[in-house]
Design goal:
The protein has 172 residues and is α+β, with helices and mostly antiparallel strands. It contains three helices and seven strands, in the order H-E-E-E-E-E-E-E-H-H.
């Protein structure tokens, strides 16, 4: 089921998400809904707070090439356990901040530990776009948006655009 995505500014996007104590069929169904919502948007990552769910759950799939098999990840309670000193810069966007993009500097590689949909602990090191995406989505779980890395003036400008977009959508 495709879920509505919250648009910034929304106080739910600024709250730290609660850890997932136990996996349930409801949480697995939520993960499936999040993947469907992410692919439909279209996007490469989505965090539960973006659809109004206060759970430490993210989904992502950075495969973009047509004909290449999708590689969806479902991560419960993901945490960065190591990051490279080397950094990379990507132009980031966000499904909760539509049509706004900015360059953000993050560690070029990051190692993440999480619980998969079967309850098994996983650990993987991500690089390139995958590293940026997983860090961006984990930030959402802390109530942090990519615009929080920008200058206050740029952040205000984007926030005003989002407020205007929300007013326009409310009128439709």
């Amino acid at each position: 089921m495709i879920r509505p995505i919250l648009i910034h500014p929304d106080p739910r996007l600024k709250k730290a998400a609660a850890p997932v104590p136990d996996l349930s069929d409801d949480l697995r169904a939520l993960a499936d809904d999040m993947l469907e919502t992410m692919y439909d948007a279209p996007g490469i990552g989505l965090a539960a707070p973006q659809i109004g769910q206060n759970h430490r759950l993210i989904v992502m799939d950075c495969v973009k090439d047509e004909g290449e098999a999708p590689r969806p990840y479902v991560m419960f309670n993901p945490q960065v356990i190591a990051s490279s000193e080397e950094t990379s810069v990507y132009e980031e966007g966000c499904l909760s901040i539509p049509e706004q993009y900015a360059e953000v500097t993050r560690p070029a590689e990051t190692t993440v530990r999480w619980i998969d949909r079967n309850g098994a602990e996983q650990e993987e090191t991500f690089g390139a776009l995958w590293a940026t995406c997983v860090q961006h989505e984990i930030d959402h779980l802390e109530g942090k948006l990519f615009i929080d890395y920008l200058t206050p003036m740029r952040r205000q400008m984007i926030t005003r655009k989002m407020q205007k977009l929300k007013r326009e959508k409310a009128r439709d």
